[in-house]
Design a protein that fits this description.
Number of domains: 1
Order of helices and strands: HEEHEHEHEEEEEE
Strand content: 35-45%
Radius of gyration: 16 Å
Structural class: alpha+beta
Distance between the termini: 46 Å
Number of helices: 4
Shape: globular
Largest sheet: 5 strands, antiparallel
Oligomer: single chain
Strand order of the largest sheet: 8-7-6-5-9
Length: about 170
């Protein structure tokens, strides 16, 4: 039996991940941080244009076209790169491991941290389920996903809040 190449596995994961990511497109995830007598509410929205960055692959397609082709399973092996270096291959492998389950990420309690910084990544908030960390940035009044990292990357020297996300269906 012939072994499937890394790129073919990545292609299969892109198809599966896009299907799961699509589930989040018409939803708002509400994160409420309670601090003593005050609270903050963050509203997260997922957009087609954010999918590509979360995958770790590179492409010449626009980010929206990339998502649409992955979702419709029309993306081809020549449309993206994922193994130009050992470092990139490992990055894509780690991101794909979590992206294929992104539809389940907000179904349980999460840990949340404001003003998240890790290396070159700066986010308004980051959330973790203990298996991966997703960082979000503010754009047009809503938080959008900026990064997907392996494992819990929160800084335990800063305040961390346990929250139960609220998933709300939006009208488009």
């Amino acid at each position: 039996m012939q072994e499937i190449s890394f790129k073919q596995k990545t292609l299969n994961n892109l198809f599966e991940s896009a299907k799961k990511y699509f589930y989040l497109l018409n939803k708002e995830i509400i994160i409420k941080l309670e601090k003593k007598k005050e609270f903050k509410i963050f509203v997260i929205r997922f957009y087609k244009s954010n999918f590509l960055h979360l995958t770790g692959v590179s492409t010449k397609l626009s980010s929206i076209k990339f998502f649409e082709n992955a979702y419709s399973k029309t993306i081809e092996m020549g449309d993206f790169e994922c193994n130009t270096s050992k470092w990139l291959k490992e990055l894509v492998k780690k991101k794909m491991r979590h992206l294929v389950n992104i539809d389940e990420f907000f179904n349980s309690d999460l840990l949340v941290q404001e003003n998240f910084h890790k290396g070159k990544v700066d986010c308004l908030i980051a959330t973790t389920d203990g298996k991966c960390t997703i960082g979000f940035v503010l754009s047009q009044g809503f938080l959008r996903p900026k990064t997907l990292m392996n494992k819990n990357k929160l800084d335990y020297k800063k305040p961390i809040y346990k929250v139960k996300p609220i998933i709300k269906i939006t009208q488009k």
